[in-house]
DNA sequence: ACCTTTATGTTGGATGTGCAACAAATCTGT
DNA sequence: ACAGATTTGTTGCACATCCAACATAAAGGT
């Protein structure tokens, strides 16, 4: 990056923007590096980073900071160790469902992202169609995966594309299975909070022989704004804890296969 | 993350895999963290990381390591300070050509990526269609930009999509201008090294009212494998130094507008 | 202009990290 | 079992980073 020109010292906000821009282009920046670049003290940069970390825009490390994966959800549970561990379990279970030669569709979401990472790591030979840029990039790193990206309007918060174009495009493919996340699972069915995602999820379901939902137990009982699927359409539910009460009964009635650790 | 279970000490290969797995799930890991997790010395972890870094599988940082940015270019000139500075100038010139309300297409490439970053930073109100995931993500961060992503086969080295689908999709849009990079500019015309990119570039040119090529002076005189455009089709050339000799003459003959710092 | 608030710089000591050289342990092939 | 290669542990020291407390400077409001 270029040296800061002129005598004009950057203001706090400008430095914050610059730091984030740097992290968009490289995975890691050092405190000292930025300090000399901005012409400020390391302490100032440190304070900047602390601020940005609190807003969840980057991840501190000793001597510098790393980018949070672009589009990563910043909700509370994303940041908690336990949640990450649970997501990893969940992703492992789901990845075990994929076999060499399978064709799949993968929905955008933090849980499906972990799933994609594990799939890439396992080097499963798979053809995957996704609307998530992150998942495309992650899975594309695997030499044995073939990735097809759907077009559409870009949604920066989720690093994914949505819209009519996306759904139309998906309708041109037929795959063995789709792997979907969701923001809520209740007796009302599967629901989603992000506008535009539900249509994509439904489009994926229509084109798939089997449908697998990756939903961790913290989503049980929640009903969000957008309807995705009724319980009998769920097919397979991969989760970290068994549902209880009426929800469990309705899932049984809907013939949902439940996969747990 | 879970604690390493059992008395079985991990072998080198297993530790390497574990480290990479960790980096797939988090952007950054610390040396000490992994050392206690694996039950080995920090020096061992350090050595592991050095190995992995040499293989380009992660990026070292003080006290730990970061995941290589998915899709991040690591070609030589990308890493060189001087080149970055020139690209920045070039991008600035190109960004000045875009006005509020414009519709544009942006090609994948490291130079166009800098251009997109500056466009996002300038908060130009623009509708952009691109085949580059990174450019989509960068420009999508700008609240005033609308980003449309083209579909296609994912090319991990370039973090972009290419192929027939990509070109077909682009043919459905008409824009004011396209901003393209290139690997070579000589009397033979504009040429490209990455297989699949030239077709996308040509598709973008066909759908654009104006064509802007962003090519830094180090590419002058180079001819790569894939033909992109003859000199008279170039339209506008944005660069950091004036071409010389026969190339300069041919550009004049071709009616190419040249924009320099 | 004044005061208040906020941002930034400075300092010093505690702690974390990197590096290099060597010792100990482990692996490997015969 | 043996010798040689590889891997890992240990140590000491140079250096970078962190943190907290205080001093100084800049910004904002009345």
Automatic annotation (TrEMBL), chains A, B:
Pfam families: DeoRC (PF00455), HTH_DeoR (PF08220). The keyword Metal-binding does not apply. Gene3D superfamilies: 3.40.50.1360, Winged helix-like DNA-binding domain superfamily/Winged helix DNA-binding domain (1.10.10.10). The keyword DNA-binding applies. Keywords: DNA-binding, Transcription, Transcription regulation. InterPro entries: Carb_Metab_HTH_regulators, DeoR-like_C, DeoR_HTH, NagB/RpiA_transferase-like, Tscrpt_reg_HTH_DeoR_CS, WH-like_DNA-bd_sf, WH_DNA-bd_sf. Residues 72-83 have a biased composition (Basic and acidic residues). Residues 12-67 form the HTH deoR-type domain. It comes from the Bacteria. Residues 59-83 are annotated as: Disordered. This is DeoR/GlpR transcriptional regulator.
């Amino acid at each position: 990056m270029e040296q800061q020109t002129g005598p004009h010292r950057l203001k706090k906000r400008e430095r914050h923007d610059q730091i984030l821009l740097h992290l968009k282009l490289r995975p890691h920046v050092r405190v000292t590096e930025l300090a000399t670049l901005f012409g400020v003290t390391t302490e100032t940069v440190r304070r900047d980073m602390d601020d940005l970390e609190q807003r969840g825009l980057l991840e501190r490390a000793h001597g510098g900071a790393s980018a949070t994966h672009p589009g990563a959800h910043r909700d509370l549970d994303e940041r908690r160790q336990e949640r990450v561990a649970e997501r990893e379990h969940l992703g492992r279970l789901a990845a075990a469902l994929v076999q060499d030669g399978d064709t799949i569709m993968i929905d955008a979401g933090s849980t499906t992202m972990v799933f994609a990472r594990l799939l890439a790591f396992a080097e499963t030979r798979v053809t995957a169609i996704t609307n998530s840029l992150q998942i495309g990039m992650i899975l594309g790193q695997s030499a044995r995966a073939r990735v097809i990206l759907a077009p559409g309007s870009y949604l920066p918060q989720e690093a994914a594309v949505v819209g009519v174009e996306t759904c139309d495009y998906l309708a041109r493919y037929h795959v063995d299975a789709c792997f979907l996340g969701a923001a809520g699972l209740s007796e009302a069915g599967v629901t989603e909070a992000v506008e535009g995602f539900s249509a994509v999820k439904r489009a994926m379901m229509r084109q798939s022989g089997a449908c697998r939902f990756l939903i961790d137990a913290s989503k049980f009982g929640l009903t969000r704004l957008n309807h995705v699927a009724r319980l009998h359409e769920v097919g397979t539910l991969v989760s970290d804890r068994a549902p209880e009460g009426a929800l469990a009964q309705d899932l049984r009635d809907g013939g949902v296969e439940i996969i747990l650790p």
